[in-house]
Specification:
transmembrane; transport; ABC transporter permease; transmembrane helix; mainly alpha; MetI-like
Length: 318
């Protein structure tokens, strides 16, 4: 198993560097540069050239990438042009709220999708099956940003039950109850937006398992239907469901960027959005490193799960 994990890690290394190179190139190709933030005509050509030299933008693209890469190996992601702080410090500040939002959304999606998918597979063409179909269609048809706007309109503007933005009522922070009130809407949007795919996978896996011979045998022995489903079918069905959840986590991370921006949630998504719009290149690259590592680690975890479940994967038989 250790050799299998080493092989997967070695495969992930060029992927990581490929991602950083691609993002670095796209940032360089984007129109405008840092000096444009000063406003049109606010700085002379000489002043702009001096500013570019001060931040290293006068160097060729390959040189700038190698300098950034050398800083990454030293643990130095540079300084933010906009905030005037170390990028690593900004990321440490923002990664906690993002993990809280994404993690809560994933837990909520699983808590809704797995029981509903099992119930829908247990009673096909029944009420649970119709409800599951509604969730699946809605999750595929309704974009997350639209769901966020509807949630704000209903629960914040019309009903006034929940706050529409921020993480706390005051800038300095608040208590746990205040945090939970601000978390409900964005985490609910992240969770509900991702229920459909997990539910569909759960229902399909359960339907397949419920048709196996050992399930038919368990029913023939007179076991109660609930015991057959929970004890015998659910364990086998959850293996592909777990795979689906792990595969879906990078998509949830990407979707949370839009949700964070709409709800003003102070996480990595909001930071990346501000950095891209403000041409804060060091922050863009630092956020790219974090998100790329999150996706690659999730992929590695998925490969490990595959290897534990099916030994043929470890030995390269498929």
């Amino acid at each position: 198993m250790a050799q299998y994990i080493r092989r997967r890690l070695i495969t992930a290394i060029p992927v990581f560097f490929g991602i950083t190179m691609l993002v670095f190139l796209l940032v360089d190709l984007a129109p405008g540069d840092l000096t444009d933030l000063m406003g049109e005509g606010a700085a002379s050509t000489v002043e702009q050239a001096a500013m570019e030299a001060a931040v290293g933008l006068d160097q060729p693209l390959p040189v700038r990438y190698l300098l950034w890469l050398a800083g990454l190996f030293r643990g130095d992601l540079g300084r933010s042009y906009h905030y005037g702080q170390d990028v690593s410090h900004l990321i440490v500040q923002r990664i906690g709220p993002s993990l809280l939002l994404t993690g809560t959304g994933v837990v909520l999606a699983v808590a809704i999708a797995v029981p509903l998918g099992v119930a829908a597979a247990w009673k096909p063409k029944g009420a649970w099956d119709r409800l599951a179909h509604l969730f699946t269609i809605s999750g595929s048809a309704v974009p997350g940003f639209f769901l966020a706007l509807v949630a704000i309109y209903l629960f914040s503007v019309r009903l006034g039950w929940l706050p529409s933005s921020g993480m706390y009522r005051s800038v300095g922070g608040g208590d746990m109850a205040d945090l939970l009130r601000h978390l409900i809407l964005p985490a609910g949007v992240v969770g509900v937006s991702n229920v459909g795919s997990i539910l569909r996978q759960t229902q399909s896996a359960c339907l397949e398992v419920l048709g196996e011979d050992y399930i038919i045998t368990a029913r023939a022995k007179g076991l109660r239907e609930g015991v057959v489903v929970v004890r015998h079918a659910l364990g086998s069905a959850l293996i592909p469901v777990l795979t689906s959840i792990l595969t879906h986590i990078p998509h949830i991370i990407g979707g949370s960027v839009v949700v964070e921006r709409i709800f003003g949630w102070p996480g990595m998504g909001s930071l990346m959005f501000s950095a891209v719009s403000g041409r804060d290149y060091n922050v863009v690259m630092g956020g790219t490193v974090v998100m790329a590592l999150a996706v690659l680690l999730t992929s590695l975890l998925l490969d490990v799960v595959y290897g534990l479940v099916d030994p043929r994967v470890r030995y390269g038989e498929r």
